[in-house]
């Protein structure tokens, strides 16, 4: 991994909501093919950090460079950049009035300019990959939460992303639906997709993470290999968090 190119470079990023500082001097990098899990207590800034990576959350200090493109540069076309960085949210963000097939193709057609046939072919191929081919003609409300989240992943993959961001993708799901989503993410990781995942699923982190970033109060307190994180924690705060979450 050491020779891989840096796909996401986060340098000294700070962010405020009015007087309240939500991110403080966050610095890390994610190389091509790495799977980095971002964890920490509620309100630690994890989701805010991941949303700054594709410009969904503006930040006031520092810079983030994604595949050579600076987010802080006012000339950067953020819409174009977002089309290359897949994002999967807590809530599936599918269009309720569109069929699953239409959900998979609309951004390909409108943002990437693909022909409808090509967009449908690609969307349905990814729908098949997440195991939901039989549901192409249904509407989101006809699917379970786990199925909707898998459609959201297929939609993101249809855009041929250079990296995937996951913001607590299983937190809104019933326990029995969590694994069907994590299984898709595990497969993506095995195939070498660059991934940044905010999650509390420590089993997933142990299985596929290259690195763990632990945040608290808007700061990155730990940025280490998963082995170091799970067996040789260096900060007391990370130890407390793990003891709580693993028991």
TrEMBL record:
Keyword ATP-binding (UniProt): yes
Query: Could you state a single Gene Ontology molecular function term?
Result: ATP binding
Q: Where in the cell is it found?
A: Cell inner membrane
Q: What is its main location?
A: membrane
Q: Which Pfam families match?
A: ABC_tran
Give all residue intervals belonging to the ABC transporter domain.
8-242
Which GO cellular component terms, listed alphabetically, does the Swiss-Prot or TrEMBL entry include? plasma membrane
> Which CDD domains has this protein been placed in?
ABC_HisP_GlnQ
Q: Which SMART domains match?
A: AAA
Its keywords, alphabetically, are:
Amino-acid transport, ATP-binding, Cell membrane, Membrane, Nucleotide-binding, Transport
Question: What is the topology of this protein in the membrane according to its UniProt annotation?
Answer: Peripheral membrane protein
Establish whether keyword Cell membrane is in the entry.
Answer: yes
Task: Report the PANTHER family cross-referenced here.
Answer: AMINO ACID IMPORT ATP-BINDING PROTEIN, GLUTAMATE_ASPARTATE IMPORT ATP-BINDING PROTEIN GLTL
Q: Would you identify the family this protein belongs to, as annotated?
A: Belongs to the ABC transporter superfamily.
Name-wise, this protein is: Arginine transporter ATP-binding subunit
Species annotation:
Acinetobacter qingfengensis
Source organism phylogeny: Bacteria, Pseudomonadati, Pseudomonadota, Gammaproteobacteria, Moraxellales
